[in-house]
Write a structure and sequence with these properties.
It contains 13 helices and eight strands. By secondary structure, the chain is of the alpha/beta class.
Length: about 375
């Protein structure tokens, strides 16, 4: 299988996850490739030099697991062009032809306020005019690769509703309309600008989001992905003991929305099953104080060592083996223009349990 949405944390946050460790876990769990959301790393990978450094870090720990890297986009045309040229230069085919297993998977756009801090600020491409600049620039330079988009519209968020003592409020603070409206904007912009690449909407959480993508399929090259968490978990689980650890962006939805989203997957309306593997320390997830002495409740759920368990749970709910193989391998290769093969990886050459590295076990909410 290929996990097309993994957050490695090399850099200033390497205590949470590294490329080397994530790939070692993959070797044990039968995962043939990961696509690294390096735009979320600190520092964020937005230039050719930072991309090369990312690849160098990966090459220092050789692994049979393929390693794709996403470069982050700002709304500055010069940066957009540099990132796009880098993605083309270090494409999968070019990398493999040079005997490499690390390559550029595509570009990543954050269509909303996702980050804080000066080093990340320009990655928040919040305005429609800024988003249009991105796609107009990519059209101008004839970029035909993939643009992954995290869709949440910031002005539709209600941060005042968030209450850490009542974790379910995270889903009220970032309601379904945040995602739906953002996807509508991005798909419309891609269509109106004549974007010639692939628009790929990551971690959809509502059936309306899927319907929008499905409508635009006849107009542009567009696809979408979903996580196992949004297919199996619901926001009511956040109010169980330890439920604060299920805080993720975009948030878990109601049991009714989750059920409808699962039905979309069963009807083959969703292209890719991805993990959005996003580890943090237990303190970062549960209110430990940051350097400013303020409690923090980071969003993100680890996934890599639990993939096989989650696949089993999905199959219990009526997902077929063929659908799993299509959405975690075949369709990934088709959408991203890769040719990552299936091969035997499982081995006992790593001591200890892969799960012990991570701060908590998110699957416990599926075992109660």
């Amino acid at each position: 299988m290929i996990d097309s949405h993994v957050h490695c944390r090399d850099g200033y946050q390497s205590h949470k996850e590294t490329i080397a460790h994530a790939r070692r876990v993959c070797e044990r769990r039968g995962i043939h490739g990961i696509f690294d959301m390096a735009a979320n790393s600190d520092p964020p990978v937005t230039t050719r030099d930072l991309f090369r450094l990312r690849v160098l870090v990966a090459e220092q720990h050789p692994s049979p697991v393929y390693h794709g890297v996403f470069l982050g986009l700002t709304y500055e045309p010069s940066q957009i062009e540099e990132a796009a040229r880098c993605a083309e230069e270090y494409s999968f085919n070019n990398a493999v032809n040079n005997g490499k297993r690390s390559f550029a998977a595509g570009l990543k756009l954050f269509a909303g306020t996702t980050f804080s801090g000066s080093s990340f600020r320009k990655l928040n491409v919040t305005e429609v005019s800024q988003q249009r600049t991105v796609f107009e620039t990519l059209l101008k330079i004839k970029y035909r690769g993939v643009v992954d988009v995290h869709c949440e519209k910031d002005f539709l968020m209600h941060s005042e509703l968030w209450d850490s003592k009542n974790p379910i409020t995270h889903s009220y603070a970032r309601p379904e309309d945040c995602e739906i409206s953002s996807i509508e904007d991005i798909a419309k912009i891609a269509h109106e600008t004549g974007f010639e690449g692939r628009l790929h909407i990551v971690h959809v959480t509502t059936p309306v989001s899927v319907d929008i993508v499905d409508y635009y399929r006849k107009l542009i090259s567009v696809s979408c992905a979903v996580t196992p968490w949004h297919l199996l978990l619901n926001n009511e689980m956040m109010n169980k003991h330890g439920g604060i650890c299920l805080k993720v962006n975009p948030p878990l939805r109601s049991p009714e929305t989750r059920e409808k989203l699962l039905d979309c997957f069963k009807r083959n309306l969703i292209d890719i099953l991805e993990s959005d593997h996003a580890p943090h320390s237990y303190e970062e997830k549960t209110g430990g104080l940051n350097k400013d002495k303020k409690p923090q409740y980071f969003s993100g759920i680890p996934c890599l060592p639990w993939w096989q368990f989650l696949i089993g749970k999905l199959m219990e709910k009526g997902i077929t083996k063929e659908q799993i193989e299509r959405t975690t391998h075949d369709r990934v290769n088709e959408i991203f223009g890769t040719n990552i093969p299936r091969f035997d990886l499982r081995g006992g050459f790593i001591e200890g349990d892969d799960k012990d590295f991570y701060a908590f076990d998110p699957t416990k909410f599926l075992k109660d």
